[in-house]
Write a structure and sequence with these properties.
The chain is of the alpha+beta class. The protein has one helix at about 55-65, and strands spanning about 1-5, 5, 10-15, 20-25, 30-35, 40-45. A four-stranded antiparallel beta sheet has the order 3-4-5-6, with no helix packed on it. Strands 1-2 form a two-stranded antiparallel sheet. Strand 5 and strand 6 (about 40-45) form a beta hairpin. It is globular, with a radius of gyration of 12 Å.
Length: about 70
């Protein structure tokens, strides 16, 4: 996977009905999946807040921002 042009490994997003689980570069989390027309949204997201090296934390922040967008 790539995030903003940088290679990143270990990133996953799993959708299972109305639930989503994700593994970021450092943290993991989950959310509810909502649908509006042909768009999916992640709502009620929660994730761990582990501290990691700055590059991994930056990747987490960028991926989290992407996950807030309609899919």
């Amino acid at each position: 996977a790539a995030v903003n042009g940088r290679a990143s490994s270990g990133l996953t997003l799993t959708l299972d009905g109305a639930a989503a689980r994700y593994q970021l570069a450092c943290n993991s989390g989950g959310a509810r999946v909502a649908r509006n027309g042909d768009k999916l949204f992640l709502t009620e997201a929660m994730q761990t807040e582990m501290g990691c090296e700055p590059a991994r934390m930056q990747t987490d922040a960028e991926v989290t921002a992407i996950l807030r967008l309609p899919m």
